[in-house]
Amino acid sequence: MSTIAFIGLGNMGGGMAANLVKAGHRVLGFDLSQEALARAVEAGCESCETIEAAVASADAVVTMLPNGAIMRDVYETSVFGHAPAGCLLLDCSTIDVATARAVAADAAAKGYAMVDAPVSGGIAAANGGTLTFMVGGPDGDFAKAEPILATMGKAVIHAGAAGNGQAAKICNNMLLGASMVATCETFAMAQKLGLDPQTFYDISSVSSGQCWSMTSYCPLPGVGPQSPADNGYQGGFATALMLKDLKLAMEAAQAANAAVPMGHAAEALFQVHANAGQGGTDFSSIIKMLG
Ligand code: NAD
Predict the structure, then answer these.
(1) What pLDDT digit, counting tens, does each position of 63-74 carry?
(2) Most buried one in 46, 156, 160, 212, CB count within 10 A?
Protein backbone atom coordinates (compact mmCIF):
# COMPACT_ATOMS: atom_id res chain seq x y z
CA MET A 1 0.00 0.00 0.00
CA SER A 2 1.16 3.53 -0.72
CA THR A 3 1.70 6.73 1.20
CA ILE A 4 -0.62 9.31 -0.37
CA ALA A 5 -0.68 13.06 0.36
CA PHE A 6 -4.20 14.50 0.00
CA ILE A 7 -4.54 18.28 -0.39
CA GLY A 8 -8.04 19.80 -0.27
CA LEU A 9 -10.26 17.83 2.10
CA GLY A 10 -13.54 19.69 1.47
CA ASN A 11 -16.97 18.38 0.43
CA MET A 12 -15.50 16.09 -2.21
CA GLY A 13 -11.91 15.55 -1.02
CA GLY A 14 -13.00 14.49 2.49
CA GLY A 15 -14.89 11.44 1.24
CA MET A 16 -12.26 10.58 -1.37
CA ALA A 17 -9.45 10.62 1.21
CA ALA A 18 -11.56 8.45 3.54
CA ASN A 19 -11.92 5.87 0.75
CA LEU A 20 -8.14 5.80 0.24
CA VAL A 21 -7.77 5.08 3.98
CA LYS A 22 -10.39 2.29 3.76
CA ALA A 23 -8.39 0.75 0.89
CA GLY A 24 -5.38 0.51 3.24
CA HIS A 25 -3.30 3.50 2.13
CA ARG A 26 -1.49 5.78 4.57
CA VAL A 27 -3.05 9.20 3.86
CA LEU A 28 -1.28 12.41 4.89
CA GLY A 29 -3.83 15.24 4.72
CA PHE A 30 -3.64 19.01 4.48
CA ASP A 31 -6.35 21.67 4.16
CA LEU A 32 -6.41 25.37 5.04
CA SER A 33 -9.62 24.65 6.98
CA GLN A 34 -9.05 23.14 10.43
CA GLU A 35 -12.60 21.80 10.37
CA ALA A 36 -11.97 19.89 7.12
CA LEU A 37 -8.70 18.57 8.51
CA ALA A 38 -10.37 17.41 11.74
CA ARG A 39 -13.02 15.49 9.75
CA ALA A 40 -10.27 13.82 7.71
CA VAL A 41 -8.44 12.78 10.90
CA GLU A 42 -11.67 11.20 12.18
CA ALA A 43 -11.76 9.22 8.93
CA GLY A 44 -8.23 7.90 9.54
CA CYS A 45 -5.99 10.43 7.75
CA GLU A 46 -2.88 11.86 9.41
CA SER A 47 -2.90 15.63 9.72
CA CYS A 48 0.06 17.66 8.40
CA GLU A 49 0.91 21.28 9.20
CA THR A 50 1.96 22.18 5.66
CA ILE A 51 1.60 20.87 2.12
CA GLU A 52 5.40 20.49 1.95
CA ALA A 53 5.33 18.17 5.00
CA ALA A 54 2.46 16.13 3.54
CA VAL A 55 4.16 15.50 0.19
CA ALA A 56 7.76 15.01 1.44
CA SER A 57 7.53 11.21 1.73
CA ALA A 58 4.58 10.57 -0.57
CA ASP A 59 4.40 7.96 -3.34
CA ALA A 60 1.45 9.91 -4.76
CA VAL A 61 -0.20 13.32 -4.26
CA VAL A 62 -3.95 13.85 -4.81
CA THR A 63 -5.36 17.40 -5.00
CA MET A 64 -9.07 18.36 -4.85
CA LEU A 65 -9.08 22.17 -4.91
CA PRO A 66 -11.56 24.93 -5.84
CA ASN A 67 -10.00 26.34 -9.05
CA GLY A 68 -7.04 26.52 -11.43
CA ALA A 69 -5.28 29.49 -9.80
CA ILE A 70 -5.19 27.74 -6.41
CA MET A 71 -4.22 24.41 -7.97
CA ARG A 72 -1.32 26.00 -9.90
CA ASP A 73 -0.08 27.84 -6.81
CA VAL A 74 -0.21 24.66 -4.68
CA TYR A 75 1.84 22.67 -7.23
CA GLU A 76 4.36 25.38 -8.08
CA THR A 77 4.94 26.59 -4.53
CA SER A 78 4.58 23.50 -2.39
CA VAL A 79 4.63 20.27 -4.42
CA PHE A 80 7.33 20.70 -7.10
CA GLY A 81 10.73 20.32 -5.51
CA HIS A 82 9.17 19.04 -2.25
CA ALA A 83 7.58 15.74 -3.38
CA PRO A 84 10.16 12.99 -4.07
CA ALA A 85 11.40 12.64 -7.66
CA GLY A 86 9.17 10.33 -9.68
CA CYS A 87 6.18 10.89 -7.37
CA LEU A 88 2.78 10.44 -9.07
CA LEU A 89 0.63 13.62 -9.05
CA LEU A 90 -3.16 13.40 -9.53
CA ASP A 91 -5.23 16.58 -9.77
CA CYS A 92 -8.93 15.76 -9.38
CA SER A 93 -10.13 19.41 -9.17
CA THR A 94 -12.29 20.85 -11.96
CA ILE A 95 -10.11 23.55 -13.56
CA ASP A 96 -9.47 25.18 -16.93
CA VAL A 97 -7.83 23.10 -19.66
CA ALA A 98 -4.99 25.60 -20.24
CA THR A 99 -3.83 25.54 -16.61
CA ALA A 100 -4.08 21.74 -16.46
CA ARG A 101 -1.83 21.47 -19.54
CA ALA A 102 0.66 24.08 -18.29
CA VAL A 103 1.08 22.49 -14.85
CA ALA A 104 1.36 18.98 -16.39
CA ALA A 105 4.13 20.20 -18.72
CA ASP A 106 5.96 21.73 -15.77
CA ALA A 107 5.56 18.49 -13.77
CA ALA A 108 6.98 16.40 -16.63
CA ALA A 109 9.94 18.79 -17.00
CA LYS A 110 10.66 18.34 -13.30
CA GLY A 111 10.53 14.53 -13.50
CA TYR A 112 7.07 13.87 -12.03
CA ALA A 113 4.32 11.64 -13.44
CA MET A 114 1.06 13.63 -13.59
CA VAL A 115 -2.57 13.20 -14.63
CA ASP A 116 -5.59 15.50 -14.58
CA ALA A 117 -8.49 13.42 -13.28
CA PRO A 118 -11.64 15.50 -12.75
CA VAL A 119 -14.75 13.70 -11.56
CA SER A 120 -18.36 13.26 -12.47
CA GLY A 121 -20.64 12.62 -9.48
CA GLY A 122 -21.30 14.74 -6.41
CA ILE A 123 -20.66 14.51 -2.68
CA ALA A 124 -22.63 11.26 -2.28
CA ALA A 125 -20.51 9.61 -5.01
CA ALA A 126 -17.31 10.94 -3.39
CA ASN A 127 -18.38 9.46 -0.04
CA GLY A 128 -19.56 6.20 -1.59
CA GLY A 129 -16.52 5.68 -3.82
CA THR A 130 -18.65 5.71 -6.97
CA LEU A 131 -17.16 8.68 -8.85
CA THR A 132 -16.34 8.58 -12.57
CA PHE A 133 -12.82 9.83 -13.35
CA MET A 134 -11.95 11.32 -16.75
CA VAL A 135 -8.20 11.20 -17.04
CA GLY A 136 -5.68 13.10 -19.15
CA GLY A 137 -1.99 12.23 -19.30
CA PRO A 138 0.60 9.94 -20.93
CA ASP A 139 -0.21 6.18 -21.08
CA GLY A 140 2.43 5.29 -18.48
CA ASP A 141 1.17 7.90 -15.99
CA PHE A 142 -2.43 6.76 -16.53
CA ALA A 143 -1.42 3.15 -15.81
CA LYS A 144 0.09 4.24 -12.46
CA ALA A 145 -2.90 6.44 -11.57
CA GLU A 146 -5.66 3.97 -12.46
CA PRO A 147 -5.46 1.68 -9.38
CA ILE A 148 -5.48 4.68 -7.00
CA LEU A 149 -8.43 6.31 -8.76
CA ALA A 150 -10.27 2.96 -8.87
CA THR A 151 -10.40 2.89 -5.06
CA MET A 152 -12.37 6.19 -5.15
CA GLY A 153 -14.62 5.54 -8.13
CA LYS A 154 -16.68 3.13 -10.20
CA ALA A 155 -15.18 4.12 -13.56
CA VAL A 156 -11.75 5.42 -14.64
CA ILE A 157 -11.56 6.45 -18.31
CA HIS A 158 -8.43 7.56 -20.17
CA ALA A 159 -9.40 10.58 -22.30
CA GLY A 160 -5.98 11.10 -23.93
CA ALA A 161 -3.09 13.50 -23.38
CA ALA A 162 -2.65 16.00 -20.52
CA GLY A 163 -5.66 18.30 -20.11
CA ASN A 164 -8.04 15.93 -21.92
CA GLY A 165 -9.67 14.89 -18.65
CA GLN A 166 -10.65 18.53 -18.04
CA ALA A 167 -11.72 18.90 -21.69
CA ALA A 168 -14.02 15.85 -21.39
CA LYS A 169 -15.47 17.11 -18.11
CA ILE A 170 -16.41 20.59 -19.38
CA CYS A 171 -17.70 19.30 -22.73
CA ASN A 172 -19.95 16.85 -20.90
CA ASN A 173 -21.20 19.48 -18.46
CA MET A 174 -21.81 22.02 -21.23
CA LEU A 175 -24.05 19.43 -22.92
CA LEU A 176 -25.77 18.73 -19.59
CA GLY A 177 -26.36 22.45 -18.90
CA ALA A 178 -27.81 23.07 -22.36
CA SER A 179 -29.96 19.90 -22.30
CA MET A 180 -31.34 20.79 -18.86
CA VAL A 181 -32.36 24.26 -20.06
CA ALA A 182 -33.97 22.71 -23.17
CA THR A 183 -35.81 20.13 -21.04
CA CYS A 184 -37.09 22.81 -18.65
CA GLU A 185 -38.36 25.19 -21.32
CA THR A 186 -39.97 22.30 -23.20
CA PHE A 187 -41.94 21.08 -20.15
CA ALA A 188 -43.01 24.67 -19.43
CA MET A 189 -44.22 25.13 -23.01
CA ALA A 190 -45.97 21.74 -23.07
CA GLN A 191 -48.00 22.76 -20.02
CA LYS A 192 -48.88 26.13 -21.56
CA LEU A 193 -50.13 24.27 -24.64
CA GLY A 194 -52.46 22.26 -22.40
CA LEU A 195 -50.46 19.02 -22.09
CA ASP A 196 -50.40 17.17 -18.78
CA PRO A 197 -46.67 16.94 -17.75
CA GLN A 198 -46.87 13.20 -17.01
CA THR A 199 -48.52 12.54 -20.38
CA PHE A 200 -45.87 14.60 -22.17
CA TYR A 201 -43.15 12.69 -20.23
CA ASP A 202 -44.69 9.35 -21.24
CA ILE A 203 -44.57 10.43 -24.90
CA SER A 204 -41.23 12.29 -25.07
CA SER A 205 -39.30 9.83 -22.88
CA VAL A 206 -39.84 7.15 -25.56
CA SER A 207 -39.54 9.57 -28.50
CA SER A 208 -36.69 11.45 -30.15
CA GLY A 209 -36.64 14.28 -27.55
CA GLN A 210 -35.54 11.85 -24.81
CA CYS A 211 -32.38 12.86 -22.91
CA TRP A 212 -30.71 12.23 -19.53
CA SER A 213 -31.99 15.54 -18.12
CA MET A 214 -35.53 14.28 -18.74
CA THR A 215 -35.42 10.57 -17.91
CA SER A 216 -32.79 10.42 -15.16
CA TYR A 217 -33.09 13.87 -13.57
CA CYS A 218 -36.53 15.22 -14.47
CA PRO A 219 -36.81 18.88 -13.37
CA LEU A 220 -40.53 18.53 -12.52
CA PRO A 221 -41.59 17.07 -9.14
CA GLY A 222 -43.60 13.86 -9.33
CA VAL A 223 -42.57 13.12 -12.93
CA GLY A 224 -39.94 10.50 -13.87
CA PRO A 225 -37.62 8.87 -11.32
CA GLN A 226 -36.79 10.43 -7.94
CA SER A 227 -34.71 13.60 -8.50
CA PRO A 228 -33.82 16.82 -6.62
CA ALA A 229 -37.12 18.30 -7.96
CA ASP A 230 -38.89 15.89 -5.58
CA ASN A 231 -36.88 17.31 -2.69
CA GLY A 232 -37.50 21.03 -3.22
CA TYR A 233 -34.39 21.21 -5.46
CA GLN A 234 -32.13 20.61 -2.44
CA GLY A 235 -29.01 18.41 -2.77
CA GLY A 236 -27.97 17.33 -6.25
CA PHE A 237 -25.68 19.56 -8.34
CA ALA A 238 -25.66 23.22 -7.28
CA THR A 239 -26.44 25.95 -9.83
CA ALA A 240 -23.16 27.69 -8.81
CA LEU A 241 -21.13 24.60 -9.75
CA MET A 242 -22.93 24.26 -13.11
CA LEU A 243 -22.19 27.93 -13.75
CA LYS A 244 -18.50 27.41 -12.85
CA ASP A 245 -18.24 24.56 -15.37
CA LEU A 246 -20.06 26.55 -18.08
CA LYS A 247 -17.66 29.46 -17.60
CA LEU A 248 -14.71 27.05 -17.97
CA ALA A 249 -16.36 25.65 -21.12
CA MET A 250 -16.78 29.14 -22.61
CA GLU A 251 -13.11 29.93 -21.87
CA ALA A 252 -12.02 26.70 -23.57
CA ALA A 253 -14.35 27.29 -26.55
CA GLN A 254 -12.85 30.71 -27.11
CA ALA A 255 -9.29 29.35 -26.92
CA ALA A 256 -10.15 26.53 -29.36
CA ASN A 257 -12.21 28.80 -31.68
CA ALA A 258 -15.24 26.51 -31.25
CA ALA A 259 -18.74 27.86 -31.99
CA VAL A 260 -20.94 27.09 -28.96
CA PRO A 261 -24.13 29.17 -29.20
CA MET A 262 -26.14 26.75 -27.02
CA GLY A 263 -23.38 26.70 -24.42
CA HIS A 264 -23.36 30.50 -24.38
CA ALA A 265 -27.12 30.63 -23.93
CA ALA A 266 -26.97 28.10 -21.08
CA GLU A 267 -24.19 30.06 -19.34
CA ALA A 268 -26.17 33.33 -19.58
CA LEU A 269 -29.34 31.67 -18.22
CA PHE A 270 -27.59 29.96 -15.29
CA GLN A 271 -25.89 33.31 -14.50
CA VAL A 272 -29.30 35.02 -14.25
CA HIS A 273 -30.56 32.14 -12.08
CA ALA A 274 -27.53 32.35 -9.76
CA ASN A 275 -27.88 36.15 -9.53
CA ALA A 276 -31.46 35.61 -8.37
CA GLY A 277 -30.12 33.85 -5.27
CA GLN A 278 -30.40 30.27 -6.59
CA GLY A 279 -26.65 29.45 -6.60
CA GLY A 280 -27.07 26.93 -3.79
CA THR A 281 -30.10 25.10 -5.17
CA ASP A 282 -29.93 22.21 -7.64
CA PHE A 283 -29.40 23.31 -11.24
CA SER A 284 -32.69 21.76 -12.41
CA SER A 285 -34.46 24.48 -10.38
CA ILE A 286 -33.90 26.71 -13.42
CA ILE A 287 -37.33 25.41 -14.50
CA LYS A 288 -38.80 27.86 -11.97
CA MET A 289 -37.24 30.73 -13.93
CA LEU A 290 -38.36 29.36 -17.31
CA GLY A 291 -41.84 28.19 -16.29
P1 NAD B 1 -14.86 22.62 -1.25
O2 NAD B 1 -14.81 24.10 -1.25
O3 NAD B 1 -15.81 21.93 -0.33
O4 NAD B 1 -13.39 22.01 -0.98
C5 NAD B 1 -12.20 22.62 -1.38
C6 NAD B 1 -11.23 22.52 -0.22
O7 NAD B 1 -9.97 23.04 -0.62
C8 NAD B 1 -11.67 23.35 1.01
O9 NAD B 1 -11.73 22.52 2.14
C10 NAD B 1 -10.60 24.43 1.12
O11 NAD B 1 -10.31 24.80 2.46
C12 NAD B 1 -9.41 23.73 0.48
N13 NAD B 1 -8.38 24.64 0.00
C14 NAD B 1 -8.54 25.80 -0.69
N15 NAD B 1 -7.33 26.35 -0.97
C16 NAD B 1 -6.40 25.52 -0.44
C17 NAD B 1 -4.99 25.52 -0.39
N18 NAD B 1 -4.27 26.51 -0.95
N19 NAD B 1 -4.36 24.52 0.25
C20 NAD B 1 -5.07 23.51 0.81
N21 NAD B 1 -6.42 23.44 0.81
C22 NAD B 1 -7.07 24.44 0.19
O23 NAD B 1 -15.15 22.20 -2.78
P24 NAD B 1 -15.64 20.76 -3.31
O25 NAD B 1 -17.13 20.77 -3.48
O26 NAD B 1 -14.99 19.70 -2.52
O27 NAD B 1 -15.03 20.80 -4.79
C28 NAD B 1 -13.66 20.53 -5.04
C29 NAD B 1 -13.45 20.43 -6.55
O30 NAD B 1 -14.28 19.39 -7.07
C31 NAD B 1 -13.84 21.70 -7.31
O32 NAD B 1 -12.90 21.93 -8.32
C33 NAD B 1 -15.23 21.39 -7.85
O34 NAD B 1 -15.53 22.11 -9.03
C35 NAD B 1 -15.10 19.90 -8.12
N36 NAD B 1 -16.37 19.16 -8.12
C37 NAD B 1 -17.27 19.34 -7.13
C38 NAD B 1 -18.46 18.61 -7.14
C39 NAD B 1 -19.51 18.78 -6.04
O40 NAD B 1 -20.62 18.27 -6.20
N41 NAD B 1 -19.20 19.45 -4.94
C42 NAD B 1 -18.71 17.68 -8.17
C43 NAD B 1 -17.73 17.49 -9.15
C44 NAD B 1 -16.57 18.22 -9.11
Answers:
(1) 999 999 999 999
(2) 156
